[in-house]
Amino acid sequence: LGVILLADSRGAVLAVGAALLLVLCLRWPRLLWGVLLAGGLAALWLWWRGDMGLLERLGSGGAIGGLDERLEIWLRALYAIQDFSFTGVGLGAYNQVIPLLYPYFLIPPSVDIPHAHNLLLQVAVDLGIPGLIAWLALLLVVVVEAGRCLRHAPVAATWAIVVGVLGGLAAMLVHGMLDAPLWGTKLAFLPWLLYALITLTLAEFTHSSSGKV
User: Fold this and answer.
1) Among 34, 114, 138, 186, which residue has the least CB neighbours within 10 Å?
2) 29 pLDDT band (50/70/90 cuts)?
């Protein structure tokens, strides 16, 4: 938490908040209604005020000066997905292909934009639409397996591990709306460790129920 606060990453703070809310709702399901009500009221309040300041603050960060620049990056990513919908541009080629084929207007050429600053867009840009579908299908399978583990968790420690994994995946997806730090970087192996942990936990339940262990 200290590192997140010192990093001053708005996306990271949102991700931690989403992960904590998910863990709390899984621990005490009745909290879900309160969270939904509070979220709905907050959305209505922001819509009524019509204040773009919050979105502007969320959109800025690092080399990006504001929401307009982030929207421009997302638009360039959509152009690339449209033109390379089947194959993608290739892993690690974003900062070479995008400025060459789809130059930025608001971002100076001296600023290096390494990725699309959105996890789903980045996966689609790198791997194409089929790759994005495969990635989402894999994520869905992991979430379904985690749900099975929660229903059959024999001990509290196992239940806590599964909930922790779900919280981590929620944080990844929420932070992925504004950035893509877990794709094409040195830390990209972390989500795969979470996938493996859920798969191994489910495999343990399967073997235990079949009497092999």
Assistant:
1) 186
2) confident
In three state form, how does the secondary structure of the chain look? CHHHHHHCCHHHHHHHHHHHHHHHHHHCCCHHHHHHHHHHHHHHHHHHHCCCHHHHHHHCECCECCHHHHHHHHHHHHHHHHHCCCCCCCCCCHHHHHHHHCCCCCCCCCCCCCCCCCHHHHHHHHHHHHHHHHHHHHHHHHHHHHHHHHHHCCCHHHHHHHHHHHHHHHHHHHHCCCCCCCCCCCCCCHHHHHHHHHHHHHHHHHHHHHCCC
**Residue keyed to tokens 């997302």:** 74
Q: Model-level pTM?
A: 0.83
- Read off the pLDDT band of 58 (50, 70, 90): low
